Amino acid sequence: MLNRRSFLKTGAASVLAAGAFTNxxxxxxxxxxxGKFIWGNLMHLGYNMWGDVPTxxxxxxxxLLCNDAVWEKVTNEMQxxxxxxxxxxxxxxxxxxxxxxxxxxxxxxxxKLQKELKRLRSMGLEPIPKLNFSACHDIWLGDYxxxxxxxxxxxxxxxxxQEVCEIFETPRFLHLGYDEETAEHQRTLDYxxxxxxxxxxxxxxxxxxxxxxxxxRPWIWSDYCWNHKEAFLQRMPKCVLQxxxxxxxxxxxxKSNYVQTYLDLDKAGFDQVxxxxxxxxxxxxxxxxxxxxxxxxxxxxxxxxxTPWHPTTEERLEHHxxxxxxxxxxxxxxx
Length: 335
Known about the structure:
Elements: H1 4-7, H2 11-21, H3 24-28, E1 38-44, H4 68-80, E2 85-89, H5 110-122, E3 126-130, H6 151-167, E4 173-175, H7 197-212, E5 217-221, H8 224-227, H9 229-235, E6 241-243, H10 257-267, E7 275-276, H11 284-295, E8 303-306, H12 317-333
Parallel strand pairs: 1-2, 1-8, 2-3, 4-5, 5-6, 7-8
Helix pairs in contact: 2-7, 4-12, 6-7, 11-12
């Protein structure tokens, strides 16, 4: 197994280790840009993010699973519901100029994406890019997903982050994903790779540093904290916006480490956008809002994010509309 000492002997690590670890001071400072309280929704352009064994829920496909009419319908409903932010899961969904080899049939051109970003902004929906670099959700990276922690991998990921930040005109955030990188989550896959220990931290801080250099704030899913709480709370830079997630119906921190993590992050002084979903039930978003509004500090609670976790297709339209309706209902319940 690759340990910290042997890893630092590799060429890529030797070049990048200093850059990733000597910028911790700058990473501790929070960006000055602030926006309205977030009422956001996650939508997918790309969807090749759930492994190399296709299922009905996670179909690995060579054709984009994003219907333009459905996309427009859902975003219009978001505007009507008073939402103000959309996280766009890009993956293989656009034709990157730096790496056109990642595109599949139907991937949006940069010009099409820029036109859509302009439309979204005109509707009051702040577009935020998401590139998931978790080893569990990076099939969209093609061959590069099997080059983890190599010099080529770092180069490609840097190219993509720089290009996306330019396309989105220096967005307020860039969501790095970084969730579920565990052996358990990959137990059914043909190809399994995870980073752990110092290698996990090295690569993660490389991504944080790369995003910060674009004058953009990194945003991640916080589930690494569930099983590495002490290290996470001590070593995680405060500049990283946290989205802990929990999709159950009962909010009891004594019974759920996932719920307790909201409280732990708040106590440690991390900014949060708690994340809910209508994936498993229809009460989770409202429950998340109620629990977090009562228990998290106003200083660090930056908003809420809905995550339907379905492709943007006609078959899933009703699911997406229900997700938006739940956000609207939760907002109205606070009045």
